[in-house]
Amino acid sequence: MLLAEVARVSAEVAATRSRSEKTGLLAGLFRTADPEEAPVALTYLAGRLPQGRVGVGWSVLREAPAPAAVPTLTVREVDRALDSIAAVAGKGARTERGRRVAALLGAATAEEQRFLRALLGGELRQGALDALAVEGLARASGADPAAVRRAVMLGGSPGAVARELLARGPAALAGFRLEVGRPVLPMLAHTAGDVEEALDRLGPCAVEEKLDGIRVQVHRNGDVVRIWTRTLEEITERLPELARVARELPVTSAVLDGEVIALDGEGRPRPFQETAGRVGSRRDVAGAAAAVPLSPVFFDLLAVDGRDLLELPVTERHAELARAVPEPLRVRRLTVTDPADPGSRAAARGFAEEVLRRGHEGVVVKALDAPYSAGRRGAAWLKVKPVHTLDLVVLAAEWGHGRRTGKLSNLHLGARCEDGSFTMLGKTFKGLTDALLEWQTGRLRELAVDDDGVVVRVRPELVVEIAYDGVQRSSRYPAGVTLRFARVLRYREDKAAAEADTVAAVEAALPARAGAPSPDGPG
Ligand SMILES: Nc1ncnc2c1ncn2[C@@H]1O[C@H](COP(=O)(O)OP(=O)(O)OP(=O)(O)O)[C@@H](O)[C@H]1O
């Protein structure tokens, strides 16, 4: 498949608002795609690289070798070239990477150069491309869209499904089952304003503590244990204590869903950054595990001893979990069978208050009859947290002054738009500890695409969790809304930018009768 084809479809998909036209364009591309190249084309269309980061900065991308006259570059060749660029390391790496990028751009037509620059610069965001790709794949192969969607959730990525589906047709979908050793996308939650609302929306439910740790999916097969994050990054090597615990469970195989969290001597959570630091670091794992041990707390069981539990209701999965995992390793929960009963409602409220007193984040309320909807933000799980937070994307940062000279400080915060782009809704430098300031300076420099000496624009990839006191209308920012008293809580490296909160979610937090536009904004 020629890169030019992918670039053309990418531009055409972006240019039309019609969902069915977008799907048709993607289906057209898949019909002629080589099954081996389709997964790579898919990641490009979604604005991602299979290599993740390739370490190419904006100064390299600004170079403009003369374009080729005719398109000859194949997707496979571009993929190999990016592999080789990502692999460059050591002294002189920057120059060598620059040389290889220039060679790649020199082999591309003007149109392909534009596409590659946007792709490498992180500017090629396509809203909801993965969902559209599922429909496009279904149309191209004659498969049932629901069956393709389910295969993607269980197979972990649209690319893996595309490869099989295009090579072997709809029958290949049956091969995507929950398998121990192959992670599935985790089920996610919606938000409810308070416990009462959650009870009313769900009916009979379980109210569980919401621990402020890092989500883990643990697969055990005999003595082999593997661990993945929420975005399916494998972190087995980083959490030896979790692997040990999983190996001791009285089962032969299992797929467990839960959190790991650093707790103090009294069982209260330690600062989130300590948990995140452990999960994010490959360095001196034994030393780090001794200094900040992490406790696993499991809340779901997706498979056990060869049985797939995904379709079973919460009640049955919880009963299986209780058999497989001893109580101290399980999340605390209160079952509410009759949510209309005032005594039960009071008990649920009391449970949530007690969870907060013990220093946790809130509760997750789960409908008792719900199956496990892998990869879905299902309405069957509702989270309730008293502190307002939004997960926003860093679009740029300003060089600090005074004590913060040489550090990237004031963050430009973006919310996600429907088309996958981001719109700025405020700035903040509040809440940043010295350690966070140091860390973000390094990370943001890696993501930089432009620096005018005041503002450094970055690829919109880094998700930051922001606490705020309220949302108000504002004429200063393009979104027309801004946050009051925005402050940084932490970075969410376990979340992709495509999962950041949307402008619509921010607008939903506006007070019912918000006043006239105000020029005031945070920061
Ligand atoms: N008992 C629990 N059941 C489910 N999820 C829990 C529980 N305790 C903590 N969590 C965490 O809460 C998250 C549920 O909220 P959601 O699905 O919206 O994910 P999120 O976007 O990471 O949320 P948040 O930023 O609020 O942690 C899970 O991803 C998990 O990490």
TrEMBL record:
Domain ATP-dependent DNA ligase family profile: 299-417
EC number: 6.5.1.1
Protein name per Swiss-Prot or TrEMBL: Probable DNA ligase
Gene: lig
Keyword annotations: ATP-binding, Cell cycle, Cell division, DNA damage, DNA recombination, DNA repair, DNA replication, Ligase, Magnesium, Metal-binding, Nucleotide-binding
Xref: NCBIfam families: dnl1, PRK03180.1
InterPro entries listed in its UniProt record: ATP-dep_DNA_ligase, DNA_ligae_ATP-dep_bac/arc, DNA_ligase_ATP-dep, DNA_ligase_ATP-dep_C, DNA_ligase_ATP-dep_cent, DNA_ligase_ATP-dep_CS, DNA_ligase_ATP-dep_N, DNA_ligase_N_sf
UniProt keyword annotation of Ubl conjugation present: no
Residues that coordinate or bind ATP: E208, R215, R230, E259, F299, R377, K383
Family: Belongs to the ATP-dependent DNA ligase family.
Name of a matching Pfam family: DNA_ligase_A_M
An annotated GO BP: DNA replication
One MF annotation (Gene Ontology) recorded for this entry: DNA binding
Active site: K210 (n6-amp-lysine intermediate)
Function: DNA ligase that seals nicks in double-stranded DNA during DNA replication, DNA recombination and DNA repair.
Lineage of producing organism: Bacteria, Bacillati, Actinomycetota, Actinomycetes, Kitasatosporales
EC top class, as a word: ligase
Catalytic activity: ATP + (deoxyribonucleotide)n-3'-hydroxyl + 5'-phospho-(deoxyribonucleotide)m = (deoxyribonucleotide)n+m + AMP + diphosphate
Listed cofactors: Mg(2+)
Superkingdom classification of source: Bacteria
